[in-house]
Amino acid sequence: MKKLWNSIRHLLEYSGAVVVFWTIRHLPYRGVRLLAKACTGVLWLLPGYRRLILGNLRAALPELPETEVRRIGRASAWNLFFNLLEFFWIDGRPKRIRRCYVLPPAVESRLREIAAAGERIIFVNPHLGSWEASGLMAPYYAGIRMVAVAKPVRNPYVNRLLNGGSREKTPGLRIIFSRGAMRESLRALREGLGVGTLIDQNTRVRDGGVFIRFFGIPAPSSLAPATLMNYCRQHRIPARIVYGTSVRLADGRIHAFMEELPRPFAEYPDEAAVIQELMSISERYIRNYPEQYLWMYRRFQYIPPDCPPELRKRYPYYAREPEAKFFRRPARRG
Questions:
Q1: CB 166 within 8 A of CB 87
Q2: What is the structure's pLDDT at 195?
């Protein structure tokens, strides 16, 4: 009976999602902007989300006056909704991709140069601007064959709808899911594909995370990009890490930026140092475009046990010390 009810619920959710998708795809572009504005207004009335956004901003940018914190917070909420709705509106339509997303000639040329040399690209992307656009532009404009890691939706029908649109319709782009992502990423690298990763997520230490300074606050981050690069070096697979992000500029369109590590990968003492370098690059971009960062996420959720008292004060209201299972897997009984 439970299985039957779940199937019915999934179909009902899927039907609702299809209606929403169809409506967004047939709106004029101005209508997408207005819908994003309306969604932002509703979200800002919800005290829990508003408190989370403002708490993160106060922790990361304590030097800002409260009026600026609130302005940036509301703008970041609008950015989240608009980018998501715009991505649905585009949904694999080439004319709309070219209207909304810009890959500068210098970036496209450099990506093609790396690919022509036979090097796999390990893309590192933050939750800044439109990270969905970042995953589309390299394959669409520069012909980079790659896989991108996505978090699956529990509803299988909605999951197919979300991950089978612009993502899978883009030639050269394949979606892999977070469960088993490392194994699939290694396979992709062996096959000659690039790999796209999101760097600013709360990865547990037991799952390959490490505490890295982010806006001066230790926060767990994934070692995956550095681990993948080390794998390539050990197996003599030509590869390089590329930091990429896509932000909305004054012309209203999303523009891509890229940077490479300032020194060769082999010169870093360990994988954590590489991730710290990448997070420092990310912080620089976020400081330039704070209105476009995803502040609606518990990024500073975990406080390392050895954190000094003066630094603990900087953490937001929701932060806590992680339990032992954050660092190691519980022993199996029997």
A1: yes
A2: 93
Residue found by looking up tokens 């992502």 in the block: 181
Report the predicted TM-score, pTM, of the whole model to 2 decimal places: 0.90
In angstroms, rounded to a whole number, what is the distance separating the alpha carbons of residues 154 and 158?
8
Contact assessment for residue 77 and residue 297, using Cβ atoms and an 8 Å cutoff = no
CA distance readout (Å), 326 to 185, 217, 269, 275 = 23, 18, 25, 19
Q: Within a 10 A sphere around the Cβ of 310, how many other Cβ atoms? A: 7
Kindly tell me if the per-residue pLDDT of 332 is higher than 70.
no
Closest CA to 36 of 66, 77, 64, 3: 77
